[in-house]
Design brief:
Blueprint (H helix, E strand, L loop, with lengths): L6 H8 L3 H12 L2 H18 L9 H17 L36 H4 L18 H7 L4 H12 L4 H8 L3 H14 L16 H15 L10 E8 L6 E3 L1 H11 L8 E8 L2 E10 L2 E13 L2 E8 L3 H5 L5 E3 L5
Parallel strand pairs: 1-6
Antiparallel strand pairs: 1-2, 3-4, 4-5, 5-6, 5-7
Helix pairs in contact: 1-3, 2-3, 2-4, 3-4, 7-8, 7-9, 8-9
């Protein structure tokens, strides 16, 4: 006769899975804040039910099942989290007044450190860069929640159709049908889930150095050669988005509050398995929070920049709210 599992057993065994469950909930919710809430709810539900856990599946599978159900329940009362590119055509006039929409629950970036992307610990379950990159998360938000769950469980976690059916409360036939529709809708996403996201090349790293130098010296014209011809710049909660190097440069020069060299400070971070920067803006000798900037490369040029003007994200990246200008030199 074996001893009945205890709540202490649960905490010891389940806590190492927190980061991978956070990545799962982030794929479902599109928000670091919402993902944290759903992971917390998952652990609470699992802790309460652990006495009845019979071990017919692994603890990991059981927790993912609870997390999926928790996210689906939360999504019943929430809209999708888009980026501006998902709402309409590009803005044609970079100098036009910017329009914000704070009522839209915008997509948020996720710090790599929170989900284990690139973790050095070989014993850890490492979240793949492919499964959390910004373009994929944005595309997932346009799927109905149940289709989203099916795609993630089948194509990211590689569950069998029968396991997915049990997790989402439907039949195997319904799972296969939902998966087919979800895959068809994601065909426009590039790269696909099966394409590896390679580490940055030396050329890309050099381009990042040049990019930082252009912003910090406020030599914005130098940005033109760093973007692909169809590059996209978007910056929620502003609803407009902008395409093409010349348009992007006009936007930055005309709309950024910086006035000259030294007004901006870019601090390297990592988000969604991609290069990113925390941008600070100097006012009265103090650098204050401005935006989190996530970059996407196509070859050696930048194809997408997402600027996220949400100050609460700085805390998630464990960054200070302010820096004295003298501290950044």
């Amino acid at each position: 006769m074996t001893d009945k599992p205890t709540n202490e057993d649960f905490l010891r065994l389940a806590d190492p899975m927190r980061r991978e469950l956070l990545a799962h909930c982030y794929r479902m919710m599109g928000s670091v804040h919402d993902a944290e809430d759903q992971v917390q709810e998952t652990y609470l539900r699992a802790w309460r039910a652990y006495d009845n856990f019979e071990g017919r599946s692994s603890l990991r599978t059981w927790l993912y099942r609870i997390a999926t159900t928790t996210c689906l329940t939360a999504l019943e009362s929430r809209g999708k989290r888009p980026l501006p590119t998902g709402l309409g055509a590009p803005s044609l006039e970079a100098q036009a007044p910017l329009v914000t929409d704070t009522e839209v629950p915008w997509l948020e970036p996720m710090p790599d450190a929170m989900t284990g992307v690139g973790a050095d610990d070989p014993a850890a379950i490492v979240t793949s860069r492919e499964s959390v990159r910004l373009a994929l998360i944005a595309a997932l938000q346009h799927l109905p929640p149940r289709q989203r769950a099916v795609l993630i469980l089948r194509d990211v976690l590689r569950w069998k159709a029968a396991e997915v059916a049990e997790a989402v409360g439907t039949s195997v036939a319904a799972v296969n049908s939902a998966l087919q529709r979800a895959r068809a809708q994601l065909e426009e996403v590039s790269p696909s889930l099966d394409d590896p996201v390679e580490p940055l090349t030396q050329e890309q790293r050099d381009q990042l150095d040049r990019y930082v130098a252009a912003f910090e010296s406020y030599d914005i014209d130098d940005l033109v050669g760093m973007f692909t011809q169809d590059a996209v710049w978007e910056m929620p909660p502003f609803v407009g988005w902008y395409q093409g190097p010349e348009t992007i440069v006009r936007l930055v020069k005309g709309q950024c509050p910086a006035e000259g060299p030294g007004d901006l400070k870019l601090v390297p971070v990592a988000a969604n398995g991609q290069p990113a920067f925390a941008v600070y803006h100097r006012q009265d000798g103090v650098y204050g929070q401005f935006a989190i900037m996530v970059l996407t490369f196509s070859g050696d040029q930048l194809s997408h920049v997402g600027m996220f003007f949400e100050e609460s994200l700085f805390e998630k990246f464990e960054l200070p709210a302010k820096w004295e200008a003298s501290e950044t030199k």
